[in-house]
Amino acid sequence: MIIKGASRAAPAKLAKHLERKDTNERVEKLEFRDVPLENLEHALRHMQMLTAATQGFKGLYHANIDPHADYPMTKEQWFRAVDVLEQELGFEGQPRVIVLHKKEGREHIHVVWARTDLETLTLRSDAFTYGKHERASARLEEEFGHEHVPGKWYKRDMDKELPMAELNHAEWQQKERSKLDPRLRKEEITGLYERADNGQALKSALEDAGYLLARGDRRAMVVVDIAGEVHSLNRQITTAKAKEIREKIADIDMDSLPDVNAARELQEQRREARNSAKGRADMGDARGGVEAPEGADGARRVQERPEDASGRLPTLAPSDDPALVEARAELDRNHDRRRDIFEQDWEKRIAREMDLVMRQINEQRDIERRVDWKQMEPGKGIERFEHKLKDRLDPQRISDRYDERQRREKERDARDVQRREARMAELQRDREQAREKLERKFDREHSQLADMHRRDQERARQQELDRAREPQSPEIKPPDRGGGYDR
Q1: Domain formed by 2-144, architecture
Q2: pLDDT digits over 172-201, tens only?
């Protein structure tokens, strides 16, 4: 029996996961304890809302109890398992929800507790839960008579090596999405790395095998598989350390690699091109397929297929291949969408930047106006009285002060106009540079698409040539019935 769990928030997202019926054969809500409504999302929102009285954020504890498929559980055993785990975690008396899932013929349950203790207005501790999970698992295995499952903490045999799972949770999720075995993928990429002499050779070998090297956001270099999943290059190579890998692939220019999003789009176009080409080939075979000729003359005609002087079947010109034309058209449509998004984003950015400049200008002018007023108009007291008296005796002073303020305002207007124009010119220059960089990226994606299509086409033609050159199967001989002669 395996038990996993962790503290979390996001009750709506958790409720959506627990109620999914597309990935589960059956979803059954077994219990709502100490919650006002028997609606899963409302119940989890209520449990999370209790954390408002505390200084915490993760107000839920989500656990998963998963026994082996060979041991079917009754409802009483499920509740007993939840009670034992609740005791080990220290969540006695807390509101909880239990949901049962049946997936691929196996049943498991999800339990969600509220961590907020209403008496102390604090969160129940979630420390050292790995050992608590294994203690509960060991108790339940002994009580139910299940086979013992080794663990890393409480159930670990110190005389043996630390047990390691073949796949972690992230790798398992990627396997579910892409339907590709990560163990086979690591073995394949490791073999390509060992056979490559340098980084460029590794890059070409990966592309021939259906992978793409790309620039990662947090990792230096990543591998994007045909399903669009992203993997760290260092983690896919099991026979070398990160330092050795960096030294071997140092000849690869990072700027020449596409980013993760561009690599995913290229892989998607590659999949669509393969699917469309396969569909056309299947349709052609179904409509006008030629039957294989019989006899020795027929076999000779099959093997005498037209080839060029180099011994390879002729390949289609890239501009004439419908699959490549379709992929290029889709790539162009994608580029047009990205250009529109680019222009919209830059318009919004320019508007935000200019609005910020205007706010800064207005704030600065308000400060300068207040300073001018203090300089030209005394505040209060005897100075204010003398100032007003002089204005009555000489009214020209009022006109002079007004003219001076107007002069300073004109200077500020000219200065602010220059400031706005300079900022606008800087933003326009940055936008042009970003647009040129985007167009260079589009050109790289077009060339990479053409290179991938050419390699796929050459590999397909070579496979067709190899199949054409295979010798015909020998004729079926009658079975030998005794030493090669008749008795």
Answers
A1: 2-Layer Sandwich (3.30)
A2: 666 666 666 777 888 888 888 888 888 888
